[in-house]
Structure formats: structure tokens, C-alpha cells
Amino acid sequence: MAHSKALLVLENFIGGKFVPCSSYIDSYNPSTGDVYCRVPDSGKEEVEAAVRAAKDAFPVWSSKSPLERSQILNKLADLIEHDLEAFAQAESKDQGKTITFARTVDIPRAVHNFRFFASSILHHVTECTEMPTMGCVHYTSRAPVGVAGLISPWNLPLYLLTWKIAPAIACGNTVVAKPSEMTSVTAWMMCKLLEKAGVPPGVVNVVFGTGAKAGEALVCHPDVPLISFTGSTLTAQRITEKSAPHCKRLSLELGGKNPAIIFDDADLSQCIPTTVRSSFANQGEICLCTSRIFVQRGIYSEFLKRFVEEAKKWKTGNPSDPTISVGALISKEHLEKVRSYVKKAQAEGARVLCGEGVDPLALPPGNQKGYFMLPTVIAEVKDESCCMQEEIFGPVTCVVAFDTEEEVIKRANGVKYGLAATVWSSNVGRVHRVAHKLQSGLVWTNCWLVRDLNLPFGGMKASGIGREGAKDSYEFFTEVKTITIKH
What we know:
Distance between the termini: 72 Å
Number of strands: 23
């Protein structure tokens, strides 16, 4: 391309070296709509080279002690933290998210992922039992599996990539990672720090490209025994089909259609700003975002009025402006998809109370071609509407009324997903009771997105298979063996 000299050009990172690719994909700045980066369009050849490098590095890396690996992970965390501002700027430009969100959430959490697993790998214990009558002792041991294939999404690029890389290499595996082709820059920046952190060549390999080419080549590779994927349920179905002949171990963290249930005794001064945040943070492009809000009828009108007022306070615009709350959506195609749900809701008779098609969107001159959308609140939506059933993954939330506890539990569970839910009530017995009945892998009560990384993370039903977290990730990224000694 004639303008390629002005663009940032990424390269794959294989065997400790940056390697150019024979073909490239354009990557857009979502806030301007301009091409600003070229990403390798990798395929079988590049994945084969990366897997070979990972296999070659596995014997030495897996033989290192947990303490040695821990020290390297901590060093890598320090290096990313040292360059936090550069990483945040890159993440904001590449993904469209606000610079504030990148600075305070994405990059600090990426740093914490390495530190967390650097610590947790030192504290796992194995099991031991005795059979005195048989003169036997049984114990378990755990060992790394081999080459881990890691496929991460575009919404929280470095945050979710490191959530996979950190436990995988902490446990002694080597990895071939494929970030989303739409948000590859911070992964490439991290690769520049690996040697300085002490990560041996081949332990972490990053291959850029599309899911259809690079992702599929990784999933189908016979020497990659486990795949960890975060993304859409549709893609996960294909991964399951393609990996089945190889009996691969899968961890699948997928979509959600997350309900917030707000009872009439909820503290609205806390509930409303938190539910606005859970609906619109990161442009609604988080699998944990709230997209269905059930409000008990006695407070429905008051809630709706105050919620819309609060949502209108969230400014949409240039992500580099620290006063902005909502940045750009990831792509033109995704923006059109999200907008289409609003149009469908209107066609079904729902009311759009603020946002898309209702309020004017004023953007700076440099962002006129960007992929922006105002926080949008829809009311009077039927439960069977696609807006209440399908994952929209944008700044759109639906607010509906309910009468009884039994009714709202049934309605909240009436979707194919089961990732997260929030419950708002001052009745302690009720929040426990409702939490137990909700078909969700995570339930927050009177809060949102408060995470203890020691505990399991993942969803039920179509929201995934398996869990991630200190113990769960350790078990996924290691192979257990039971040993019996007769004495």
C-alpha cells in the first residue's frame, strides 16, 4: 500500500524474535475510522513455526522451579508497570476505549495478572491419603501439560491476554497466543519486554491474524493439547468441533446476557450509578456488562427517571479526553450491529428513552468518522425480544418492571446465557436466596465487578465451559497424576 510507510507495522514474535509475515491486515483506529496499523495475516506456516518454538522451549522451562518462574513473572509485571502510560495510550488508540479506562483498569489489571499468578504458583498443595491396612500411601503430583494455545478477544486486549499467559507459563507450560487482529498492539509491545524480563526464547510466542486462519490453525494443531479461548459462543462452537478429533482440553469463557435485579428496598443512591457503570463501562463491551435491568414495580418509575438522568451524564467522544466516559466501539460493522438492535426494539414497540436516535451526538472534528454511540436506555421491551435474548455487546441496556421474587428469577434465567448477575436489596435473606436460584456463574449483590482472583470465574449454559482463577487455572494448565507407594 502506498501509505504503509506511515503506518505502524507489527510482526509475529516466534522463538524470541520478531518475524515478518508475507501478508498483512489493516487495523483501524476506532475513534477516527482511519487505518493506522498493519497486522500480520498469519496462517498455518506461522502457527507451525510458533508451535515448534514452544515445543523446543518446553523441556527447559517446565524444569524450572515455581520460584524461578515466579521471579520472571514479577519482573515482567514490573516492566509493564514502568511503561504503563505508553501501554494505556496504545490500548486506547487501538481499541477505542477511553484513556481513563485503559489507565485505571486494563493495564493495571494486566500487571496484576502476572503478579497474582507469580504468587499463587508458590502456594498450591497436592493431596495425600493413607491406607494403613494395605500398607499404602497415595499422593498426587501435578506437571505442566505442554504447549498451550491461547486466543483472546478485542474488548480487553492486554487484560485478558495476560489473564491466560500468566497462569499458563507460571505452571510451566509454553504458549502460542493469538490476540484479536483488531487489537494487537499491546501484545506486540509486551513481546518487546519478554527478553529483559528473563523469559527464555520460545516460552511465549505471539502469532497475529484472524480467527479463520491463525486461530483455526492453532486449534487444529496436533501438538497443542489445550486451548483457552475468550470470545463469542458461536466461535467457541467451531473451536469445540475442530478440537474434538484431538480430544483437546478446552477452557471457554463466552458471552453473557447479564441481568440486574433491583428490589424495592434497594439503596438507589448506590444502585443507580453502579448500574449505569455496569451497563456502559468500556462502551458496554465487557462480557460482564448489565444488559437487562429488572426493577420491582413499586420503584420502577422513579428508578427509570433517575437512571436515564445518570446515563445522560456519561459523555461520549474522543477517548484521549480524560473527561470522556464512553469511547468508540471497536469497528464500523460492530457499531452497525449494535444500532440495529435499537431499531429492532423500536419496531417491536419499545421506547428508547435516551441515546441512539433520540439525543444528538456531538463529536470533535477529528472524530466525525469514528464509531461512536451514546449510552442508550430502552424500556417496555418484551422478554422474548432479541434485545432481551441476544448479546448486544454495546452501550445498550433494557429496563423492565417485575412484581414478585419468583417471577423475576424465572425471567432472569430465561436466556441461553448464564455468566453474571447483580442483585440489589437490603434484605440479607433475600439476596442469598435469589443468588442461589440464579443460573449465573457469578452473582454480585449490591455491587458490580468486585473480583477476588482466587475464586472461580466463568459461566453456566452457553456462557462457557470451565472456570478461571487461582485454583481453577492451575488445574487447567497442569496434568494431575496419582502415585501409590506400597511400603
